[in-house]
């Protein structure tokens, strides 16, 4: 267990090292990136904390890098070059919105995709399997910006049953406590808290479905392929021959064995979800990381771009670490006794 | 001679290519997809002949005309016109040319550099190898579209830059596939035998390893092609790739996005074009994968 | 009474271009407590027979039989659910690769418990007691310790012992061993084989031993069935097969076994059949061995029937009777090496 943890930690540190080198390189060497560094005469009065980046020009390369990493570790990711606010402050506001959307999308993808994949594996090569696999291939090939527009057209414009944009109805005023709208509405002491919760859920459903489409297809496909492999394994056949009930074989034996490769596949979903959030948030005016980052690109706010990519990549590193730890509990081969 | 040669026929061993084709043919969906893909490619090549109008020409008196199968539609404009009266069909046909050629450029760029790096990594010493692999792992860790957007933001929006950005984010896949295929292949005994026979590294690579790592690379090529089309059109939609007058599919969608209420066909039809292209490429890719690496039980 | 009695078992693989025959009209009888060896090349359908007996054929396979009795009950007359339950109470199977036949995610104890409770043993202490007995029976020493381990923490031989213990947990009347020793080291192979043969006596269980290794069968079996391309080519007592093989295929298999202790002269070669085993989509006309048979004649394009030879067994060859008579007239002390010469002579 100890060697396992140290291996994971080394992995995380080396990833983080390469990551900071990359973003440091961006801020330090790219001519455009230097807009991250303020003209001192302009900024000192307006934004007193900007001195962090100013000093970097005068420091040596190694010192500058160490300086950079210390600031990042203390939670200082720099300042927006357009608005002058700390990037970390923006991140704390926008990040929960993205997490909420992505979590809802992943939930939809798992709840629908897993059973579909299992069902297809059980009926391999029959019409049910072919139908599910064709459907998932379409989902997998879907340009989601178009898919989002189609769904908005159908559900919001033609049927009028879902809202078009933002996280909650404008008539509600909810204090941000956790940043997660669903939680905040429930925690709120206002008299319309429950209505606000319904409104938040109502606003969440369509973008979550859009964002969940590609992961749903990927999960259905990978569940099907790992489940077919597992269901064909000798240990499942011998369990069957020993009279163990079919439901027990499926839910206890096969799913447990399939969960190991599925966890690995789950790591890839994070990437897909964050990519998708860039588009989904833009179309649904969802105030999250993706929209924030894209607006920074339009405004050429390089400080936010660098800080944002650093934060996103750190988040991915952490997610992979969590998945790794989780996997070592599920897979007995990774568990070390003694 | 014994009797069998007189009435038992000999079995013929088909060539590798023929065997792949024979496996591929068995999959009807993949065959249809290949046909569709060829048709799309022909449309792209013959765009000038097929398109009735210049894609940029504005028919100011016929704005937002629905497709011909609607009552208000005309046969002049098969798929209707957009908000400034441009013929949608002509734009789509030219868009096919633009999208396919851009994606091909992306795939060629990233495949050449990716395969080169992969070969370099697998034939060089520990340090160069781990340096390359670390960097690739890092690039893979960042969601590809976000990385492409950031690159475009740094080097500036526009078509050529979008191509570089998408090509860059596709490189790691080629490096990983190439390297793992080579590592897998070099551990086999026939390669050891060739080394013992004194074959040089280049001879070893060209004569025995290259033919055997081709299947995974070909599959990766199709995959990269579909990702390239998707990401270029996404960048176009976000206004970071091809710019407005260009008839690129994503750009067409971003222009018609705001008119979705009045002219839904200007959104539906270009999107269907992207979906069909991606779907047929992915089907061809699946078919190739099954044909080249048949998993028989 | 027959432990296993199969009449005209056919197994087809369903494909787009029609069914392909994997096993063609196979008949077999096996008495209680017998050890039956099944030998054949890979792809000859011998493992498919094991799967058919265990009811494990995939849905792509179609099985037909006139009569298929396991311990006195006709399986073909049961509904699928009953059939699976009945089979699991009467027969067990162990596979070639012990690493893949044990579930990597669960401890040995869990896997034994599952099987025991599926067969009516629910009390926790009784299950533990029985698990230890079973592990003891297959020659595992530190039973308590092994129970709490995962399959990957044990060696291949130990895993195979555990797999046998789990197979015995159902108290089977028939144990099918599908290449049980192929993936093990040679010394372990002998141990596992001894274990199986011993269990045949101590646990009173009939054994079907499937292998491609003729040498393995010669010492351990009562009867041998020789498979080739989905057909039973020869089925007779082990003694008869070894001393008087009547089918050319059996002869060629025997001649291709290297003999320990006999120094082969330099440059001489072991006998090998020409060509390859036919693929199932293009079986040869007539006798399946035809294109490769060293003693094929024109009439071999007509399919031979499985005929009974008195004092021997059953053989599927047009020349079996002829061959048997010729053998009888010849001296009984004829050695194998001279027989080899006659076969080779027929070839040239």
Instruction: Identify the CATH homologous superfamily of chain B.
Output: MetI-like
Rounded mean pLDDT score of chain A: 79
Helix content of chain A: over 70%
Principal-axes shape call of chain A: globular
Number of strands of chain A: 0
Overall average pLDDT of chain B: 83
Assign a percent range to the helix content of chain B: over 70%
- Terminal-residue CA separation of chain B: 37 Å
Are there runs of chain B of 5+ residues with pLDDT below 50, and where?
1-7
Give the tally of structural domains of chain A.
Answer: 2
* C-alpha end-to-end distance of chain A: 9 Å
Flag low-confidence runs of chain A.
Answer: 31-56
The number of distinct helices of chain B, counting runs of at least 4 residues, comes to: 12
What does the main sheet of chain A amount to?
none
Beta-strand percentage of chain B?
under 5%
Short description:
Chain B is an all-alpha fold.
Description of the structure:
- The complex is a heterotrimer of chains A (338), B (297) and C (348).
- Chain A is an all-alpha fold and 338 residues long.
- Helices cover 74% and strands 0% of the residues of chain A.
- Chain A contains 13 helices and no strands.
- Chain A has helices at 2-29, 40-46, 51-55, 61-73, 87-122, 127-140, 144-158, 181-187, 193-231, 234-241, 246-283, 289-299, 302-330.
- In chain A, helix 1 (2-29) runs antiparallel to helix 13 (302-330), helix 6 (127-140) packs across helix 9 (193-231) and helix 8 packs across helix 9 (193-231).
- Chain B has 297 residues and is mostly helical.
- Chain B has one domain: MetI-like (MetI-like fold).
- Helices cover 70% and strands 0% of the residues of chain B.
- Chain B has helices at 4-7, 16-25, 28-45, 47-50, 88-123, 126-141, 144-155, 159-186, 189-196, 201-237, 249-256, 265-292.
- The radius of gyration of chain C is 22 Å and the shape is globular.
- Chain C has a domain at 2-221: P-loop containing nucleotide triphosphate hydrolases (Rossmann fold).
- In chain C, the strands form two sheets. In chain C, strands 7-8-9-3-10-11-13-12 form an eight-stranded mixed β-sheet, sandwiched between helices. In chain C, strands 1, 2, 4, 5 and 6 form a five-stranded antiparallel β-sheet that branches.
- In chain C, a hairpin with a 6-residue loop joins strand 1 (2-13) and strand 2.
- Chains in contact: A-B, A-C, B-C.
- Chains A and B meet through helix 1, helix 6, helix 7, helix 11 and helix 12 of A and helix 6, helix 7, helix 10 and helix 12 of B.
């Amino acid at each position: 267990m100890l060697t396992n943890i140290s291996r994971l930690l080394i992995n995380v540190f080396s990833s983080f090292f390469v990551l900071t080198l990359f973003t440091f390189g961006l801020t330090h060497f790219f001519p455009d990136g230097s807009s991250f560094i303020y003209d001192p005469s302009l900024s000192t009065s307006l934004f007193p904390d900007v001195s962090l980046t100013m000093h970097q020009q005068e420091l040596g390369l190694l010192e500058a890098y160490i300086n950079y990493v210390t600031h990042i570790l203390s939670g200082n990711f720099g300042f927006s070059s357009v608005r002058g606010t700390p990037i970390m402050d923006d991140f704390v506001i926008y990040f929960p919105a993205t997490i909420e959307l992505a979590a809802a999308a992943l939930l939809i993808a798992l709840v629908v995709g897993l059973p579909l994949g299992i069902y297809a594996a059980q009926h391999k090569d029959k019409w049910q399997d072919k139908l599910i696999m064709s459907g998932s291939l379409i989902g997998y090939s879907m340009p989601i910006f178009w898919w989002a527009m189609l769904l908005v057209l159908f559900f919001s414009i033609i049927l009028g049953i879902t809202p078009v944009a933002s996280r909650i109805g404008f008539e509600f005023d909810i204090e941000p406590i956790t940043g997660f709208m669903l939680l905040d509405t429930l925690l709120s002491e206002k008299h319309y808290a429950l209505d606000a919760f319904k409104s938040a859920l109502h606003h969440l459903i369509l973008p979550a479905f859009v964002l969940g489409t590609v992961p749903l297809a990927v999960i259905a496909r990978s569940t099907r392929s790992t489940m077919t492999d597992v269901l064909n394994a000798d240990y499942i056949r011998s369990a069957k021959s020993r009279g163990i009930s079919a439901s027990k074989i499926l839910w206890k034996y096969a799913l447990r064995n399939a969960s190991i490769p599925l966890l690995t596949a789950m790591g890839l979903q994070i990437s897909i979800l964050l990519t998708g959030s860039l588009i989904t948030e833009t179309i649904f005016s969802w105030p999250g990381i993706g929209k924030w980052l894209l607006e920074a690109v339009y405004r050429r706010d390089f400080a936010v771009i660098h800080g944002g990519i650093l934060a996103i990549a750190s988040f991915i590193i952490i997610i992979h670490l969590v998945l790794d730890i989780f996997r070592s509990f599920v897979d007995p081969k990774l568990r070390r006794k003694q | 001679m014994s009797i069998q040669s007189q009435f038992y026929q000999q079995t013929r061993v088909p060539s590798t290519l023929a065997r792949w084709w024979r496996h591929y043919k068995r999959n009807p969906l993949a065959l249809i997809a290949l046909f569709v893909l060829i048709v799309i490619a022909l449309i792209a090549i013959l765009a000038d002949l097929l398109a009735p109008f210049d894609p940029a020409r504005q028919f100011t008196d016929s704005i937002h005309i629905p497709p011909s199968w609607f009552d208000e539609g005309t046969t002049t404009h098969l798929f209707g016109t957009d908000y400034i009266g441009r013929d949608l069909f002509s734009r789509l046909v030219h868009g096919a040319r633009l999208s396919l050629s851009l994606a091909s450029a992306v795939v060629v760029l990233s495949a050449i550099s990716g395969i080169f790096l992969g070969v370099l990594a697998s034939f060089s010493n520990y340090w160069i190898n781990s340096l390359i692999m670390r960097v690739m792992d890092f690039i893979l860790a960042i969601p590809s579209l976000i990385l492409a957007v950031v690159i475009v933001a740094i080097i500036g929006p526009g078509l050529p830059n979008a191509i570089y950005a998408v090509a860059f984010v596709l490189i790691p896949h080629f490096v990983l596939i190439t390297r793992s295929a080579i590592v897998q292949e070099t551990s086999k005994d026939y390669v050891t035998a060739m080394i013992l026979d004194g074959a040089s590294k280049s001879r070893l690579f060209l004569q025995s390893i290259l033919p055997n790592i081709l299947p995974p690379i070909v599959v990766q090529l199709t995959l990269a092609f579909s990702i390239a089309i998707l990401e270029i059109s996404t960048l176009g939609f976000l206004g970071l790739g091809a710019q407005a007058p260009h008839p690129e599919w994503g750009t067409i969608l971003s222009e018609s996005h705001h008119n979705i209420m009045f002219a839904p066909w200007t959104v539906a039809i270009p999107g269907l074009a992207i979906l069909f292209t991606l779907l047929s490429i992915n089907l061809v890719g699946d078919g190739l994968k099954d044909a080249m690496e048949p998993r028989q039980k | 009474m027959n432990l296993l009695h199969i009449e005209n078992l056919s197994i087809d693989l369903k494909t787009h271009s029609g069914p392909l025959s994997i096993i063609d009209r196979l008949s077999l009888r096996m008495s209680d407590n017998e050890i039956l060896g099944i030998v054949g090349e890979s792809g000859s359908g011998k493992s498919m027979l094991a799967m058919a007996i265990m009811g494990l054929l995939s849905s792509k396979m179609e099985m037909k039989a006139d009569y298929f009795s396991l311990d006195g009950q006709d399986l073909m007359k049961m509904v699928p659910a009953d059939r699976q339950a009945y089979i699991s109470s009467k027969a067990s199977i162990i596979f070639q690769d012990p690493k893949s036949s044990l579930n990597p995610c669960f401890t040995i104890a869990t896997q034994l418990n599952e099987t025991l409770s599926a067969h009516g043993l629910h009390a926790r202490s009784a299950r533990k007691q029985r698990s230890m007995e079973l592990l003891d029976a297959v020659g595992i020493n530190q039973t308590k310790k092994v129970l709490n381990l995962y399959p990957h923490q044990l060696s291949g031989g130990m895993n195979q012992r555990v797999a046998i213990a789990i197979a015995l947990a159902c108290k089977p009347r028939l144990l099918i061993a599908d290449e049980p020793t192929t993936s093990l080291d040679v010394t372990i192979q002998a141990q596992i084989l001894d274990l199986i043969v011993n269990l045949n006596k101590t646990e009173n269980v009939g054994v079907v031993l499937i292998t491609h290794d003729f040498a393995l069968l010669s010492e351990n079996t009562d009867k041998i069935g020789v498979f080739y391309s989905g057909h039973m080519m020869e089925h007779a007592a082990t003694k008869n097969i070894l001393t008087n093989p009547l089918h050319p295929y059996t002869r060629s298999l025997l001649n291709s076994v290297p003999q320990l202790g006999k120094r082969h002269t330099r440059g001489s070669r072991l006998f090998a059949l020409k060509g390859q085993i036919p693929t199932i989509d293009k079986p040869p006309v007539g006798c399946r061995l035809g294109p490769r048979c060293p003693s094929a004649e024109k009439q071999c394009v007509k399919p031979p029937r499985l005929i009974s030879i008195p004092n021997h067994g059953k053989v599927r060859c047009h020349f079996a009777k002829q061959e048997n008579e010729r053998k009888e007239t010849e001296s009984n002390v004829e050695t194998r090496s001279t027989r080899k010469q006659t076969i080779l002579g027929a070839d040239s």
